[in-house]
Amino acid sequence: MLSDADYDIEHLIEIIDGIVDGAKQRTKLQLSVEDELDKVAPVMRQEAEWYVQHACERLREVEARVLWRAALARTGEHTIWFATTNYDRSLEIGSRFNDISIDDGFEQFNGREVAPWRGVRHDRPLQLLKMHGSTDWYQGSDGRTFKLRHPMPLYGNLAVVDDGSEWPKMTSALVLPTREKRVTHPPYPELVTSFRNAAAAAECAIFVGTSLRDPDILDVCTRCASRIPTYFVSKDGAPTGSAANPKLKVVVQKAARFIASTLPEFLAKSASDSLGEMTASANVEDGSVLDWLVAIQDETRTPKEICSAIERLSDSSVAVDAAALRPLLEHEDHTVRRYAVALVDKSLDRAEVMELAEERARIEPEGLLAEELTMLKTLIGDREKPPRAT
Amino acid sequence: MSTEPWPPALTIDHQAILRLFTGETFYSSVDASIREAVLNAIDAVGRRRSADSSLAPQIAVTFDTQSRTVTVTDNGDGMCQEDVTGLFARIGSSAATLAAAPKKGQYRAVGEFGIGVLSYFLCCQHFELHSFCPDNEPIGLEFSRNMLDGRTPARALPPRQTTQGTELVLSVEREDHFARLLERFPHWIRHVEGLSAREYPSDAPLRQGGLSREIKPVDVPTPPWIHEAVIGPPVLFDSWENFDGSAHVDVLYHGVFVEQVTIPRLWAIAGAVHVDPKRFRPKLNREGFVGDALKADLEPVLRDAHPKILERAIECVRDVLGDDHTKHWTLGRWVTLWLAVPRSGPYTRAAALWDDEFRTRKAFRLLRPGQQVDDVSVQDLIHLGAHELHIAPLNLPNADQLVQQAVRVLRNSRRTVVQGISREASFLQNASLVGVSTGDLLAHHFRRELPTLVPVADIAADVIRQEEAIRLFHDPPEIKLVRLGPDATPVVPVGQEIWINLDCQPGKDIVEDVCRRNEGHLGLWAACMRQAGQYAQQIANILAHSPDQPNRLGPVKRAYLRHLVQ
């Protein structure tokens, strides 16, 4: 069923939901239900639901940390609303491991295993709106929404029961596709409202990796595009069909590349319309920037693997921050050190890493780093020379 | 039973021995007969002059073609019967024995063994002897070959000699022998005092041979045993043309040629020396000096004379060859002479003269950028006013690759690069030269006059390093990227290094290939094979020591190298 590249797990769930819903309607109309598919469809839906939760929950900490570190470190004085329909906890984990506080609408755990929904605040610099819930969100039998410190994938009739009876029985709170996206029970109406309000007040909007199939998101995107610089980031280019919008500024990049490299650069600059210039000549790399970023920061990788990742990042002009580069410039393998110089020029912290590289070059007996740095400076110098008058 | 006495005694077969002496196993050719006849005449005159120093020697040699006779007359002391008997009847008796007699004074004869007369039988069956010695009956005798049996006596003839002296008439048996004697006369008879010769019936005078080569005589000191030295540089073009680098001096014995002494390295010496018989008699056999006896004595004399002769030689060069050095000779032949002038000690003045002669001759090549070459002289080089003069190797194509490239770099960067003209290998082979090219002269003998002279071979490595060579890999074998000009080869194996020339497209392609493959030395090998297969063996030898793990180039270095070759 997923053989066609146009379909994904959400499409699958939509299809299954359609089958289940059709069976319900026939039952309601007292029509006979003899189709075998009607019997297995609910099971399939549970499996798909489990799969979504399980897959999202398999997010590796290192990937989340690497993906978001540079951007979160450069939020500075900005007020940023992150709105996402993804269920995974990438941003939450990334912010926690980078000691950046993001408000997600829940109370603090304060030593507990469960935190109840508190409501969206509007006074925090970094706010997260998980429009379709999260893998750690659970729906209480009392109608409230909770977040577990140690979440587990639930599907079907499975529920979490607190032995101490402090909390009600809880089931999965994910807003899965089709009908359920339109559920009206808390906190989703509040999230949608907050999203719309935040967009209405924003000075710049960036839509990353979304298909704009969600009508709320498409509507907000359209409104933003008519009012403020609005960017649409996708490896496939401009949205098509009903989502097409000439006012959108299209950034052809993969989401991970954008979040890890382009967004931090953009945040470091003050002008909200600079993103277009930064990405004007960007090409979609063949491979996963996130994988490469992880590779260069994974101590278990071999020098050859690290060098290969550096090379891919360098070829793709991915901006890497000092936190990632420092260990490379100080790596015990001289080949890794030499390769790391390739990331200095495009680094998010170029001045800092250049100074670090020079310091390393001074103390390195082989002189290899020094040679590499000299060449880099020559290349930079030649590049920055004013064109010769003709 | 044998009739021979017993026990046996040594017996001599006189006829066999005499025939031995008259055969060519003793003398090398019939030439000996004319030489011996003249020498006997010289001895006779010498003996008479020892008693009467005012005597004007008169020796006449006549070749009569019709009668095929050779007649030698002299106004020497003449012979009486006793002399003839002693000399001719007893072979082995020396004319020197006669000289020992009080009546013959103190003259020391040429003939050593008294067997010279036998040489007459080399060319004739019989000869006549007419002699008159005052206070004695004149003698007229015919000696025939039959006398070699030891028993047949000479036949008496009516004496013809009426004045003191001797006449010898050789009746040459064969026509070819007569022709040879006539032809070889000037070879052997060079400068005999008082000798005149004619040919009949034409009555044409025959000249003595004189010097083998015409020379410009140089007055040089000689030891007492050399009566006269007529030596100096030759003056005729042919002599210069045929120089081989050795001295060639004729040794004469009372004007008769004995042999030519050849002494290597003493080039430009020609002429003749007349040696004293008293010194050399014990060292003479019938046809020349024994072993190297004369050469050993003569060489120091000529060596002492050599500097002075070379000083004079420059005048001959100028006279013979003129100012236009390319008219007769190649420049290489010209400079070979210059290179053959020794420069130490007594040769200082000679060297200075030759240097002056060549100061304005364009005996150097100034290597201009590209392939341009200008012919220049020492004077030109001085006037160039360069701070440094780089001396390129003589044979650049065969020079070390490093040096070749250094020369290329220097000339393309408009530095002053000079190349010498090489000696002509086939000319003056026996002379010792101060170098193989005029570049060597520059480097060693013009240092004071010229700017700083730097042989390129001494600075080749520095020259290339100044071109900011880039090391391709961090591990050996060393691979360097250098700029050697677009006309240089793309790959240059230098010792244990390989240089890649970034100035030519194949060199750039190699670098691009290395960057693309990024397989270290292995990738380089593959790239070189495509672009510079002619150095395959050398490159393979160098790269045989490549590290096991490839030296991969970092992204920056690759970007930099690509930037360089674009």
Can you give a write-up of this model?
- The complex is a heterodimer of chains A (390) and B (566).
- Chain A folds into two domains: 61-278, no CATH class; 289-382.
- Chain A contains 14 helices and nine strands.
- Chain A has helices at 9-28, 36-57, 61-73, 90-97, 188-201, 215-227, 255-268, 275-279, 289-296, 303-315, 322-329, 334-340, 350-363, 368-384; strands at 80-84, 114-116, 126-130, 137-140, 145-148, 170-172, 205-208, 230-233, 249-251.
- Chain A has a four-stranded antiparallel beta sheet, with no helix packed on it.
- In chain A, helix 6 (215-227) links the parallel strand 7 and strand 8.
- Chain B has 566 residues and is of the alpha+beta class.
- Chain B has helices at 14-21, 31-51, 81-89, 95-100, 175-188, 237-241, 277-280, 293-321, 325-328, 331-339, 348-358, 378-384, 401-412, 438-445, 456-465, 505-517, 521-531, 536-543, 555-565, and strands spanning 59-64, 69-74, 124-132, 139-144, 155-156, 165-172, 195-200, 204-206, 226-232, 246-253, 256-264, 270-275, 364-367, 373-376, 388-392, 417-420, 452-455, 470-471, 479-482, 491-494, 497-501.
- Chain B has an eight-stranded mixed beta sheet with strand order 5-4-3-6-2-1-7-8, with helices on one face. In chain B, strands 14-13-16-15-17 form a five-stranded mixed beta sheet. Chain B has a four-stranded mixed beta sheet with strand order 9-12-10-11.
- In chain B, strand 15, helix 13 and strand 16 form a beta-alpha-beta unit.
- Chain B is elongated.
- The N and C termini of chain B lie far apart (115 Å).
- The model of chain B is unreliable at 92-106 and 108-113 (pLDDT under 50).
- Classes of the chains: A alpha/beta (390), B alpha+beta (566).
